[in-house]
Amino acid sequence: MDSAVIYVRRRDEDGPVRFGFIVAKNVGTAVVRNRVRRRFRAAGRELLPSLDGGRDIVVRALPGSDALDWATLREGFGAAIERGTR
Questions:
Q1: Contact present, 1 and 64 (Cβ < 8 Å)
Q2: What's the CA gap between 32 and 57, in Å, rounded?
Q3: pLDDT reported for residue 29
Q4: In the predicted model, is pLDDT for residue 84 greater than 90?
Q5: Which residues pair with 66 in a beta bridge?
Q6: Which neighbouring-strand residues pair with 8?
Q7: pTM of the full structure
Q8: Which residues contact 59 (CB under 8 A, 6 or more apart)?
Q9: Structurally, how many domains does the chain consist of?
Q10: Would you call 73 exposed, middle or buried from its count of C-beta atoms within 10 A (0-12, 13-18, 19+)?
């Protein structure tokens, strides 16, 4: 995924999957950054049922992530998470 850097870390305790989102000012104005964060959060929410618990996932949005359409963002995000959880 070229629009974000995704870190996946397994925790020692078994609990729910936790997401963290980093959207810096170089992504755009406050309105754009909030929209990017909401879109990544929605994509993560859709993936929750397919993920094992006990993981921390941090998503760092890169400039240009605001220009992606929903299908591209969702597909790339899902593929990146899948690679990270193997």
A1: no
A2: 22
A3: 96
A4: no
A5: none
A6: 57
A7: 0.89
A8: 4, 5, 6, 19, 20, 21, 22, 40, 44, 77
A9: 1
A10: buried
pLDDT in tens, 8-63: 999 888 889 999 999 999 999 999 999 999 999 999 999 999 888 889 999 999 99
CB atoms within 10 A of CB 1: 19
Q: Which two tokens stand for residue 4?
A: 């974000």
CATH number of the domain where residue 67 is located: 3.30.230.10
**3-state SS string for 11-65:** CCCCCCCEEEEEECHHHCCHHHHHHHHHHHHHHHHHHHHHCCCCEEEEEEECCCH
Domain that residue 72 falls in: 4-85
43 burial via Cβ count (<10 Å: 0-12, 13-18, 19+): buried
pLDDT given at position 12 = 85
8 A C-beta contact, residue 59 and residue 23: no
